[in-house]
Amino acid sequence: MRQRTIVFDFGGVLFNTSAVDFYRERFQKQGRSEEELQYFLNEIFTNKDRAEANIGTVEEVVAKKAKQHPEWADDILAFGTPEAYIKHIRSVMPGMKEVLDDIERNGDRIVGLTNWASDAYDVIPQAFPDILAHFNKVVVSGKVHLKKPSPEIFQLAQKEFGNPAAAAVYFFDDKADNVETAKKVTRWKAFVFKDANTVRQALALPAKAR
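RE: above sequence
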């Protein structure tokens, strides 16, 4: 049986991430209201703003937004520190550490393809060494200045992963448009991630013992 290449997205697949929870904790600690938090997230530093970092760095994005909204600068800049990058990751997704262990035990190769800011990604190997130790290669959008679902990042990833045979590549992402693009561009076997069982079933791994 030939070795398979297993490609994982990070946010929403390996890690539970939430900028909203990060900021909610900050605002609550400072005694500020939920209404103020929602205004900040919906009008000042939005999900779209934060997503801009995925083709570069958080540092660049927060610096630009802080200049645009100096009255909110402290809150905006708080998102651009290594400590914040770690806090943004709330936890490892349930069951995924065991899935990685089982895949490695099976002799398959594990790689990553993630939309993640370059500077924010750099803290992950130190914060979660037991997770990143499984990965042979990770293509990070902020480092290559491309992001999913652009066809170009899938083409690049296919090369970076050594041009494995499409039939032996399994890709897991929590966003359907990324999955569909992977199927069209690289012909990988691609799956919308729901939970760890999505991976176990697709790869015919043993069910987790209870």
